[in-house]
Fold this sequence. Notes:
- The structure holds two protein chains of two kinds.
- In chain A, strand 8 and strand 9 form a beta hairpin.
- The N and C termini of chain A lie far apart (36 Å).
- Chain A is built from no helices and nine strands.
- Chain A has strands at residues 4-7, 10-13, 19-29, 34-39, 46-50, 54-55, 63-76, 86-91, 100-104.
- Chain B is mainly β.
- Chain B contains no helices and eleven strands.
- The chains are: A mainly beta, B mainly beta.
- The interface between A and B is medium-sized, with 24 and 21 residues.
Amino acid sequence: xxxxxxxxxxxxxxxxxxxxxxxxxxxxxxxxxxxxxxxxxxxxxxxxxxxxxxxxxxxxxxxxxxxxxxxxxxxxxxxxxxxxxxxxxxxxxxxxxxxxxxxxx
Amino acid sequence: xxxxxxxxxxxxxxxxxxxxxxxxxxxxxxxxxxxxxxxxxxxxxxxxxxxxxxxxxxxxxxxxxxxxxxxxxxxxxxxxxxxxxxxxxxxxxxxxxxxxxxxxxxxxxxxxxxxxxxx
Lengths: 105, 119
């Protein structure tokens, strides 16, 4: 079973700054199947990035994903107030990371 | 538009049973694998079950294996989750989600239905 570990647990930043979120897998994961989701309070998760680096429909280009093997990164440039949420990574239709909470500093 | 709507959540006593449903619209339901994902209050996402597009293959997280059953009725565009022998730790919002055929990503998700296990 592949375990995904996200860091940091909480990230405190100000609007306009850049956020860098990490997702590390316990063994190599196909980049084709590494996915990122955003979840806001009281809402269902929303697909952000699929295939490690492809933005889902309607996702602004300030969101980008990268990585391969066991290390993956979600980067959010020029943070907007609506970007403050919890972010999860997932590998092919199964386990999720524990999440990174992005909060306003 | 592509949509998933869960229903059937509520309060159930420990050891009891409950069935939640997920009704799909806006896409060919019978073409897609489907999942249940749950989220306990204040916690992260936990994948719990998968069913292949035709119902021929199912998979479960260890936490629910042997107690919960995923099923589907493609003729009615509906996904089910039968929950038996529930425990307090099963208290969560239960989401259904469609799995993309090519990427494996979950999209869309339903709005979730709350299952509370309490005496």
